[in-house]
Recover the amino acids of this structure.
């Protein structure tokens, strides 16, 4: 009888973990779009200040994402989403991939990947909760179309 109860509790715990993971996946979510039509957690991109500007550019033959290190202070943030602007200043197609997968491996981990045409700008809206509840304080970003080129870091102050 005790064995059946233990198996029943383990099954309940397992089901609870699976359900809470599904809720976490749907609780926030990164949105990608343009300034005029994009929105994140019900707030239009055009109503939000741009928190970070990242440029895909070239220095000689080196393809880089600038700045190589960006810092974002979330300590006194009132809960408004973070808005990033990523602009391709190169003459060729470039990629941008930012992830927290170095710190965690859950299916709900922050993971953004976009491709930009020459001269194109895209906006990335990230709910503050997705950053605050992420494990660690460092997110890496790189050009996934040029994986051998230097990557960058986003450092959060929580």
């Amino acid at each position: 009888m005790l064995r059946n109860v233990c198996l029943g509790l383990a099954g309940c715990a397992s089901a609870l973990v699976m359900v809470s993971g599904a809720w976490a996946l749907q609780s926030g979510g990164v949105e990608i779009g343009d300034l005029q039509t994009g929105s994140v957690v019900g707030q239009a991109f055009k109503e939000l200040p741009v928190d970070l500007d990242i440029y895909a550019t070239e220095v000689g033959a080196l393809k880089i994402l600038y700045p190589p290190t960006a810092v974002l202070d979330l300590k006194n943030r009132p809960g408004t989403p973070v808005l990033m602007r990523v602009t391709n200043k190169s003459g060729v197609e470039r990629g941008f991939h930012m992830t927290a997968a170095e710190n965690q491996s859950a299916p709900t981990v922050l993971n953004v990947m976009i491709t930009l045409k020459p001269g194109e700008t895209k906006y990335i809206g990230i709910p503050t909760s997705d950053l605050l509840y992420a494990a660690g304080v460092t997110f890496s970003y790189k050009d996934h179309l040029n994986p051998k080129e230097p990557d960058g870091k986003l450092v959060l102050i929580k």
